[in-house]
Amino acid sequence: MDDGGTLHSIGELARQTGLTVKTIRFYSDHGIVTPADRTSAGYRRYGPEAVARLAFVRTLRELGLGLDVIRQILDRELALDEVAAQHAAALDAQIGILRLRRAVLTAVARRRPTPEETHRMHELARLPESERRRLVVDFLDAVFQDPGSEAIRHSMTPHLPERPTEEQLEAWVELAELTLDPDFRTGLRRTVRAHRSDGSAPPRPNVVALARDHAAPALDEGIPPKSPEADAVVAALTAHCARTLDRPDDSALRHHLLSLLESAHDPRRDRYLELLALVNAWPAPARLAPVLAWSTTALRARTAR
Questions:
Q1: Global model pTM greater than 0.70
Q2: Residues 73, 64 contacting (CB under 8 angstroms)
Q3: Which of 12, 20, 91, 226 reaches 20 to 30 Å from 119, CA-CA?
Q4: pLDDT tens-digit series, residues 243-291
Q5: Which residues contact residue 173 at a Cβ distance below 8 angstroms, ignoring those fewer than 6 apart?
Q6: By C-alpha distance, which of 69, 21, 80, 75 is closest to 46?
């Protein structure tokens, strides 16, 4: 057949499709695209439809489909929409795995953990949803052992979404490590119990909230906790706590207040709440550590041993 300007050589197809001559010849040998004719010298010639067919094949290959699947789609043995849906689902799974790996590697690069810690971080990142839930429940059961803690327990429960961001994955890994820290568990449980020791439920507002309300303005104003300017702040704090706890504003109250604030002063608690907010996509919480440090220092300086 004479090409009459309607048939294309492999070289012409390569220029029009951006594929290499070698690739087009490979596709032709495997039946992906077939020549419409040959020249007297045996060179292959392809019809106009070959350009569109090869462009489609190139798109599917760039999307990751294999040649066998592509051939079945072209031969209408498989529906393109069904193949696309299956391939998209497989890619979702691969993307999830890659994001987990990236989260762990980012955390490793930032924190320089030991090989054992790196392995634990990797395992925590790979936990299925059921195992994540079990880990969280175990932690919360260990901390909130007394009845009546449902509200605060709920407020400290992480819920990693089905499609977390890389930032949420990194936060989850670090938060999970914190929940496994026996010292953190013990300290948080001690704090919870200490703040429930005055009755069947913690006072509202509790002494930590009161310390925050009184100390935060002093911190903002740059008042040193041991300075004379802090006297009025401490006096207002102890008077407010005395009213809240229905106790005399005396040395015993100050010792009691100091004990409560010292037990609550753990920077890891702030970090847990920061990570919790990231995982749950909540607004970033205010940090308690600075106001608790100011309050305990100010109280200790004014409390006789």
A1: no
A2: no
A3: 91
A4: 988 899 999 999 999 988 988 888 999 999 999 999 999 999 988 999 9
A5: 103, 104, 107, 121, 124, 125
A6: 21
